[in-house]
From TrEMBL:
This is Mitochondrial glutamate carrier 2. Belongs to the mitochondrial carrier (TC 2.A.29) family. It catalyses: L-glutamate(in) + H(+)(in) = L-glutamate(out) + H(+)(out). One of its GO terms (molecular function) is L-aspartate transmembrane transporter activity. It is a multi-pass membrane protein. GO terms for cellular component: mitochondrial inner membrane. Solcar repeats lie at residues 57-147, 155-251, 262-351. Pfam families: Mito_carr (PF00153). The keyword Mitochondrion applies. Its main location: mitochondrion. The chain crosses the membrane at residues 263-282, 322-347. It is found in: Mitochondrion inner membrane.
Amino acid sequence: MNFRRIVNAEMLRPTELSEGTLSSPVVDPLGFEGLSCFCGCCDDGGGVNVGGTVYKAFLVPKIVNGGIAGIIGVSCVFPLDLVKTRLQNQQIGPNGEKMYKNMFDCFRKTYRAEGYFGMYRGSAVNILLITPEKAIKLTANDYFRHKFTTSDGRLPISSQMLAGGLAGAFQIIVTTPMELLKIQMQDAGRVAAQAKLAGKVVEKASATKIAQQLLREKGIIGLYKGIGATGLRDVTFSIVYFPMFAMCNELGPRRKDSSGEAVFWWSFLSGLASGSFAALFVNPLDVIKTRLQALKKADGEKEFKGIADCITKTMKYEGPTAFFKGGLCRMIVIAPLFGIAQMVYFLGVAETLMGIKTSHY
């Protein structure tokens, strides 16, 4: 099967006519992966030839759209992410006692104890760093897809997986400190509640104070605690998600125009199915990462020295099901995130803000 380069129509604008073969670009509904065309049908300026018209692909609108989608998505689903973090960090006591029975119980108790704004602890860190995270991931993935594309315009599935994995590896430069600080804020309420039951008081801390303390005591390395586990999760997710989405998207019905793109609803379903599966697939790695990055533990909870130690102790004291804690939350979070991203890219929000004319061909 010939490689059909993913190009988002919202990122393209027509320039002068140029001779060339008709390409059949396929839209990536999230806009996370296809930035510009390198399939051999482009002009020297990096455009894509569609029906004799060369379109220029823009990286900046892609990044801006990614940031906008990320910020809106975080705002909508962050309470579920907080619940996921608390469920994953919660360890079962010697007599089987635990603070939260399930996702709904955690949500109810957290809201009752900390209120609406308590459900958004740590969201500021995510909102601040989501755009640079997306910028690194988008740029890296596009670069590696370009490098791995063969001279005849093919990109084998193994190369797609490698490109996605390498993009995930670069992404952790921003993701690790972002997740580290976010987790401290998200889990603070749980740790404080358990300390209160034991008659103790835990000092409140902001993400800024935590970052300053880590930098003062351990230097920049302190912000990268758990980087190995973060890398394992993000690289594995990218390896699973991107090829699976490409294959699912290729199977669906196409639009009736000459673009060769999958219809909107099929692309959305492909992204939803691929994202949900990948999220559950890497959930054990997410549990390990979350537990390693939690700097403060509740009384009686075990400390972990590294990935192997975390796996061993979790398996010994809580069993294999502990690695799927918060898995349902992760899968539920995928739906609105993908829906929001889909709409932001489809509507071309960044292009409208930047005054770039778009063309839905």
